[in-house]
Amino acid sequence: MNRIFEKEYTLRAGDFDKFDRLHPAAVLDLFQDAAGQHADQLGIGYETLHKRSLMWALVRVKFRFLAPAHRYQTVKVKTWPLEPRRLSHRREYCIEDENGERLVEGSSEWVIMDSVERNLRWMPTLYPMDFEFHTELMCDKRLDRIQRVLPESKVAYVVHAGFSDLDINEHVNNVKYANYVMNAINPTREEEIESFQVDYRKEVPPESELRVYCDREADCIYAYGNTADNTAMFVCKLTFKR
């Protein structure tokens, strides 16, 4: 039973933006795919949990760009879970080039939820008792919640959660939020992302209207996704390279 999952992927043209830089959504998509396959290998993937009326839910994810990627490049994605801490299940990631140089490092925090009642579940025996956890951290020792109060800024982008945004759990997939944020920010060529974090506060169900607000501070941007009644659904923090 491999404690570290590794898989090679070929980056596609659609993984890059108009400045030929890797989309944050493409990074999240690679993370999601590798994590899902590793969970299947460990016997804790979607199908297994679904039979028990359970599901994985992403609480937050953070990553930083270390070096540029290129179209049609072959990269290796690695991921591993850390030892759970009661309700929190942390998973680390890195994306490497053909020579083993790290292009992206990331961390995420997950919880197990009841797929019907949508409440948290404590699963102390989720992993096999003899499973040896890898301990290397990619981001901070703690993945802290983004502490930010929504300013009185104007709506930068409005989106209606449609069919193509949803995943098998019948809510907006975590990858899609990155596109919402980037559309709201509309960065310039000079604004190259260094780090990206999303906190997922609530599930976004089908046909929801999300209003995305942006608050700029020097080399940092906060983006907020709220419903029409001002319920906070997600918050994102980006930093740009100096």
Task: Please report the first level of CATH classification, the CATH class of the largest domain.
Answer: Alpha Beta
Mean pLDDT level = 94
Main sheet overview: 11 strands, antiparallel
- Percentage of residues assigned to helices: 10-25%
Number of domains: 2
CATH fold group of the largest domain: Thiol Ester Dehydrase, Chain A
Continuous helix count? 3
Order of helices and strands: EHHEEEEEEHEEEE
- Number of strand segments: 11
Question: Compute the gyration radius: what is it?
Answer: 18 Å
The termini sit apart by 42 Å
Which architecture name of the largest domain does CATH use?
Roll
Using brief descriptors, characterize the structure shown.
242 residues, mainly beta, Thiol Ester Dehydrase, Chain A, 11 strands
Describe the structure.
- The longest helix is centred in the first third of the chain and has 18 residues, at 24-41.
- It contains 3 helices and 11 strands, in the order E-H-H-E-E-E-E-E-E-H-E-E-E-E.
- It is globular and about 50 Å long.
- It has helices at residues 24-41, 46-50, 174-185, and strands spanning 5-10, 54-65, 74-81, 89-96, 102-114, 120-121, 155-160, 193-200, 209-217, 220-226, 232-240.
- Strands 1, 2, 3, 4, 5, 6, 7, 8, 9, 10 and 11 form an 11-stranded antiparallel β-sheet that branches.
- Helix 1 (24-41) runs antiparallel to helix 3.
- It is mostly beta strands.
- The protein folds into 2 domains: 5-121, Hotdog Thioesterase (Thiol Ester Dehydrase, Chain A); 155-240, Hotdog Thioesterase (Thiol Ester Dehydrase, Chain A, Roll), CATH 3.10.129.10.
- The model has no long low-confidence stretch (mean pLDDT 94).
